[in-house]
Amino acid sequence: MPQIVIIAKEPLPGRVKTRLTPPYSPEEAAALAEAALIDSVRAVAATPAAQRVLALDGLPGRWLPPGFVVVPQRGGGLDERLAAAFTDAHRLRPGPVVLIGMDTPQVTPALLNEAGQALERHDAVFGPAGDGGFWLLGLRRPDPALLLGVPMSHPETGKHQLDRLVRAGLAVHHLPELTDVDTAADAAIVAAAAPTSRFATTLRELDRRSRTGPTIRSRPDEREPDQRPGARANERQPDRQPGARANERQPDRQPGARANERQPDQRSRGRAIEGEADRRAEVEPMNEKQTDERELSR
User: Where are the domains of the chain?
Assistant: First the structure.
């Protein structure tokens, strides 16, 4: 039964998953890295192993359960740190070693168990990654020379590492290809492959927040010019200036305006009454005179 090693970094903002930024912030990328590490730790914890080792760059946190031996990473480049992790684990407990990283949260105990069993019949186990690297390397007899000098973080890292194993005359068992989480597109693929993982849950939560939370803009006026204070009010009430409605509805309500319109009729009626009275005053003396003349003629 082999021992299983996880080589990982402490999930701190700005130090892990920097290729996820953007679209994610350094804090969100660190949250995704921690979730991926938790999934990897759980998979190893659920797999039968002679010993479980965490080769860590940084300090362990609450995400690390009991049952793991923590050793610090040593070396400069990734090839040196991988070689040192194999060497340190083998020194602690001689025997076959299976090593994985923290970038494949979709890894399962079944895959890890297959790797351990394969080392009973093969010299090495190799798990290729979709980006050209590898997600697992298992060695029955760890040897730093099998890793030192292999170009890392390269599109053909996996090919170079596999060539090194083959040239050393090792019988290699191949595992299925998995996707490393390096970019946002990788994160979506891995979350879909392991929808119940801690990683997938964290990714969904971050995406939900980005859809419902406030959007950060460099210039607030650039995208929503009508949402500045008072903009909506001015848009809906262009004519609500002091007195605007009053002037619109009451253009003729000036002092005396209605009175002046009605007064001409009243003056005309007054003059008509006065004229009628004058005519009656003239007619009445004439009627009296005619009466007197009729009386005299009798």
Answer: 3-212
The CATH number corresponding to 3-212 among 3.40.30.110, 3.90.550.10, 3.40.50.300, 3.40.30.10 equals 3.90.550.10
Provide the token pair at 25.
């912030």
Say if strands 124-128 and 172-174 run parallel, antiparallel, or are unpaired.
Answer: parallel
pTM above threshold 0.90:
no
Helix-then-strand count for the chain, H and E: 10, 7
Q: How are beta strands 124-128 and 69-72 bridged, if at all?
A: unpaired
pLDDT tens per residue across all 298 residues of the chain: 999 999 999 999 999 999 999 999 999 999 999 999 999 999 999 999 999 999 999 999 999 999 999 999 999 999 999 999 999 999 999 999 999 999 999 999 999 999 999 999 999 999 999 999 999 999 999 999 999 999 999 999 999 999 999 999 999 999 999 999 999 999 999 999 999 999 999 999 999 998 875 433 333 343 444 444 444 444 444 444 444 444 444 444 444 444 444 444 444 444 444 555 454 544 444 444 444 444 433 3
Plot region of 230 (φ>0 → left; ψ -120 to 50 → alpha; else → beta): left
Nearest CA among 71, 87, 92, 98 for reference residue 8:
71
Distance CA 40, CA 135 (A): 11
Determine the Cα–Cα distance for residues 90 and 141; give it in Å rounded to an integer. 9
